[in-house]
Amino acid sequence: MTTAAPSESPAQTISSPDEQYIQVKDFSFWYGSSQVIFDQTFDMPKQKVTAFIGPSGCGKSTLLRCFNRMNDLIDGIHHTGDVQVGGESIFDPMLEVISLRKRVGMVFQKYNPFPKSIYENIVYSLRVAGRSKKSELDEVVERSLRSSALWDEVKDRLQDSALGLSGGQMQRLCIARAIANQPEILLMDEPCSALDPVATGKIEELIHSLKRQFTIVIVTHNMQQAARVSDRTAFFYLGKLIEYDETQKIFMNPEKSQTEDYVSGRFG
Amino acid sequence: MTKEPKGFDKRMRPAGEMYVWLCAMGLAAGIIMVIGLLWVIVANGVQVFWPRPVYEVTLKDGSVIAASIVEDREKKVAEEGGQFAREYKLFTGNKDAYGRQFRYVDQNEIVSMNEPADIIVGEREGSGQAIFYPIELILADGKTVAADSPDFDATFQRLIDEAADARAKARHIDRGPIGGYSAKLKKIYLEKRLLQKRNPDEDKDLQAMDALFIQITKLSSDETEQKSELMAQYQALNDRGGIFAEMAVLNERERLLNEEFAPLLVQSQALKDSINKNTLRYRLIDGTEREYAAGKILLTYQPNQLTAIDKVLFFIGHFWMFLSEDPREANTEGGIFPAIFGTFVMTLLMSIAVMPFGVLAAIYLREYASQGLFTQAVRVAVNNLAGVPSIVYGVFGLGFFVYGMGSWIDGGADDPMAVASWSLWLVVLAVLIVATVLLAQEDYWKHRRWLKDNIRRQTVSTLSVIALILLGFLIYESPFFHGFFSDRLLLNEPTFGTGGVLWASLTLALMTVPVVVVATEEALAAVPRGVREASLACGASKWQTIQRIVMPASASGVLTGLILAMARGAGEVAPLMLVGVIKYVPELPLDTTAPFFHFERKFMHLGFHIYDLGFQSPDSEAAKPMVFATTFLLIVLVIILNLGAILIRDHLRRKYASGTF
């Protein structure tokens, strides 16, 4: 893998006491011949919530999906630069992508439970890893459901189909599923865009409690949400990282006028 | 700007209302055609089982006919004055007396018609139905029971029942112990013939020995002189030892076998003879008197005295007989059970063969193959295979399965490779396999960057395909394999090298593969991307995702494909005529004699039966209603098989309901 030449891109590394857990280094990304991510360099701290904001098509979802190499499914992609998790490159050819995905869980924009029972949904990641001890699975189900604040609602119908839940419940089930195998990082791609305000509120509360355990990266179109849940915010525009800083600073006192325009709703 | 009308425009109609009507008409036309077809089939098919009244028809020329009316129709040729007279098609039965069973009578010629109460219709083992007045029964001991004596009915019924009983017993003996006896006898006969074939020089003497043996066995015990003379000759041959001694051993085995089963054979023959020993004398309506073995009459009824309930019972009984019995008299009488069973077994085997084949192909095509021009070409080619005329598949099945694989199983390759070159190829194969296995070691090659990963993988798959083809070729050409049934082949009796239910099923499986592939591909494509991504994000591999998420979710679609394939396969006739269906085989492909599955056997098929009855039968008029009844049953069988698949599909749908994606 070639490393891009050092450039004058807005490399914005924040000096902070937090451990820099996810490190993006001179990262560029192409779908076929069209470049969607331009030379981004920034770090995300451990056990904090980092929000990616920016208008549609700015490459924030693409970047997020690079972190667990979900983009591998698409033909004709390539990249330069590197992304490291805990100091290890995720593009190392020796690394089996499955072991990366075990460490990096993901929650999608549209809730997508499997057409199986609630129980089987949660233990799926353990089953595919070859773990099938009943007591262990039971324990994981309860712990994950409690962490995702769903336990009290579904504990009596774990064997029912997951498709019988409401939208908000399904999305929390997806979160429970993503954290079942104890990943280190949780990627959330607009997790609330298909939910009503009440369900959104619940998910936001959940994010607050989950960040004690996980490093969370969340993509959102909702400024208030970014402001409410995140510690850091990165603003992207047209594939470039415009500004990355403490959330408070981004919303109260951004350095770039583009950022200010966007967060205050005067953009475009 | 045009002037806007005030208020609502009440004349406004939604565009395209016409097309809704057109669509509805299209559907209606379809439904009418289906219902019409079913009605024709059912109405005509049911006639066979429903008892019709028998009329005594007196004609102008004074002759009298006893017959039931089959059809009332307009004559083809106009009378003078352009009038079309009407005529009846009458069923007269008594084929043995009249030489035909049907006759057309001009309605103008009829003087009177009435329903004689005491006329009897008898169904017979041969020559179809008889319509008659009984005269007397001549019993085996010479006694006669006149028709007007009070115990005639009871005696006649007793004779029929006894005959049915004897027939069942004889059949039981024939199918059971005597079946085993024939199989053993055939084996001995086979060994004898082999001995002759393998020793062409001694063939004459061996034949002489066999002839002597037969002569000796035929001699009765009191012709001692002649017997001892023959025995001496026989012994002289036997003393030559070697193959002659072997022959003698075989002969001895045959003798013992014959001795062991002689009582059973006698018993079976006695049972069969008992059927013929009582005679019924009866009078036809025109006064001729005839005799017929009473035991060969299967059942009698008085058609003009049946009540409604009797008729229903008669209908049910006859329908059941049609379902459960073997055909008689060149298939025009009796039941069609072997055909139902053959169709069922063939369709089932076909489904078992086509499912894994089609589903795996579709999975690779949709999930693994890169979606380029080549994949698209393969897809188009597979779809076009569905349009190849079925007879072409029959020819292919005959060439590939029957003459290729079948002959190989029977007797090995026709022209096997020389051992030297075969061994050389074996080495090549071994090298290929080793190379493939080495190249497939992921862990090793990960460190060695000079070999691009995708090139390596492509090489592995190409090599494994080549190795597989070579393996098949080498197995086929093996100089060491001489077939599993080469003995029988020596006697020109192929086992798998001739049509059979296995080859028929595989041929149809080949024919229906496109249907399954297309349906499976559609079903796979319909599984939403979201769940696939979710599964991968959970750390599942691609295969785990396919196995645990994609396959269950698309199972109902796959079964839809199977339903379509079964419907197409079960109704197919043309290719089957080349690869295993024949007119009459009472032996079923599944039975209770070891090894229970006889998939090399030829079989009967409902579709072919329809063709045979309608167009190959000696009396197609008599077979016509049977054609409809058989068609009806074929449709019912297809519906039952489909219902089974539909039930499974609905169960899966409920289990993997995917409503909210």
TrEMBL record, chain A:
SMART domains xref list: AAA
PROSITE patterns: ABC_TRANSPORTER_1 (PS00211), ABC_TRANSPORTER_2 (PS50893)
Domain ABC transporter span(s) in chain numbering: 22-263
Gene Ontology, cellular component aspect: membrane
Family matches, as SUPFAM superfamilies: P-loop containing nucleoside triphosphate hydrolases
Transport as UniProt keyword: yes
Sorted UniProt keywords: ATP-binding, Nucleotide-binding, Phosphate transport, Transport
Entries under Gene3D superfamilies matching the protein: P-loop containing nucleotide triphosphate hydrolases (3.40.50.300)
One GO-annotated biological process of the protein: phosphate ion transmembrane transport
Record's keyword annotation contains Acetylation: no
Database matches in NCBIfam families: 3a0107s01c2 (TIGR00972)
The protein's name: Phosphate import ATP-binding protein PstB
Organism encoding this protein: Cerasicoccus arenae
TrEMBL record, chain B:
Compartment(s) where it occurs, according to its Swiss-Prot or TrEMBL record: Cell membrane
Positions of the ABC transmembrane type-1 domain: 340-645
Keywords, comma-separated and alphabetical: Membrane, Transmembrane, Transmembrane helix, Transport
Record has Transmembrane as a keyword: yes
Claim: Transmembrane helix is one of the keywords in the record: yes
GO cellular component: plasma membrane
SUPFAM superfamilies reported in the protein's UniProt record: MetI-like (SSF161098)
Membrane topology, from the record: Multi-pass membrane protein
Main location: membrane
Transmembrane segments: 18-42, 335-365, 377-402, 422-440, 460-476, 496-519, 549-567, 626-648
A GO BP annotation: transmembrane transport
UniProt similarity note: Belongs to the binding-protein-dependent transport system permease family.
Protein name per its UniProtKB record: ABC transmembrane type-1 domain-containing protein
